């Protein structure tokens, strides 16, 4: 099956009983991670976030919240007679953040992007789809350049799409329209919709290594051949059957793909957190049930796959899951009771949790140092090229609200510094000397990266090249997020603390879709700063 170079719009895409029961473990606490407050206010609440190839991050909020705290440049105003709050809009609802300068500027998004989707295309442009009200059929394009702003296509979608796949839209379509011009029904979306609650919005979609799509909604999943519109496989329901899609919002990742030269590459999905059955309706009455404290992990290419349950040290709903360059997973943001929705979550989870997928099942979780800023409904997170995780957003209110509520509309930006960025690991951290970037690398080719490591304890066997696909993050899901563990074919010491690391790129677009990646060299679990590469 050919590798997809378009965006699937649902983005915009019995073992032994003991093995099925959640595994419990002793809490482990980290001490070397840290937090940075980057901006007290960027003027908007960053409820959507995407890192671009120029180290800028695009963030945006809904436009019909009334005025933001950031004016449009040069006294500019937009006239929008369809806006439900203000017909003359003089404040920004989108910003472009320069990561390394720690500065931001206002952008002009012309229509309501609330609860929409997005993906980086192979050319590096951000395609962004859907939204609220009159904007539900919009397609927006942002090109990373010094003077670029949002461009909009009024009827770029066949049907209205709010909350990614679209409320009540049990179908999918492709953009750009030179692929397939019409929408196609997907009964799985209606089968997973709970009456009066839904619990299947923002489905988790991952490109499998065979070119099919793994689609998870509510509490179950399918493997879907989108070319022929065929369900290839139905996976068993998660043990317990608890919902984990919006508004009972959990999160999910495709775990790092490794052993990429093997004839059969293993692919695993991890789904964590969410809300118990009945939580949404109870939260509407002001009763906040405890969030789920489970993760479910499944090998999606097995002939008879089964979910393996694990227990998190902290229950979490509306959390985010971010892949780190060294192959670990960060669980961040969210609450420990209630669900997603206006005023429907309580008890913020301030502490992060690190998940080490290759550890023994009873020693995978480690609690990290907490933030002091609650990140509730509409929070975001994104991995940056220097290994930090950018965190923003949180607005559990129908409008901007800064007084008289438990959780204020949050306009700040902060960064989480994982323990691998601690100064005590500086001598183990590789510095990529050459190349500084790779504008075009081919599939299944060997490349050499030269690094410097100023240590007398270099472990050549631990050196590994990894590639990360930056994700579009909103509503507790990082769309198109992917980490590839290339390992190393050969490491050669060349003197003066320099090492040449050879690695082979993935073999096809099914394993690694073409486009923009961050490439890291990892030594003893400590990643270098990434370089930008384009794979095609």
From TrEMBL:
<keyword id="KW-0732">Signal</keyword>
<feature type="domain" description="Glyoxal oxidase N-terminal">
    <location>
        <begin position="47"/>
        <end position="420"/>
    </location>
</feature>
<protein>
    <recommendedName>
        <fullName>Galactose oxidase-like Early set domain-containing protein</fullName>
    </recommendedName>
</protein>
<dbReference type="Pfam" id="PF07250">
    <property type="entry name" value="Glyoxal_oxid_N"/>
</dbReference>
<dbReference type="Pfam" id="PF09118">
    <property type="entry name" value="GO-like_E_set"/>
</dbReference>
<dbReference type="InterPro" id="IPR014756">
    <property type="entry name" value="Ig_E-set"/>
</dbReference>
<feature type="signal peptide">
    <location>
        <begin position="1"/>
        <end position="19"/>
    </location>
</feature>
<dbReference type="InterPro" id="IPR009880">
    <property type="entry name" value="Glyoxal_oxidase_N"/>
</dbReference>
<dbReference type="InterPro" id="IPR011043">
    <property type="entry name" value="Gal_Oxase/kelch_b-propeller"/>
</dbReference>
<dbReference type="InterPro" id="IPR015202">
    <property type="entry name" value="GO-like_E_set"/>
</dbReference>
<dbReference type="InterPro" id="IPR013783">
    <property type="entry name" value="Ig-like_fold"/>
</dbReference>
<dbReference type="InterPro" id="IPR037293">
    <property type="entry name" value="Gal_Oxidase_central_sf"/>
</dbReference>
<feature type="domain" description="Galactose oxidase-like Early set">
    <location>
        <begin position="429"/>
        <end position="534"/>
    </location>
</feature>
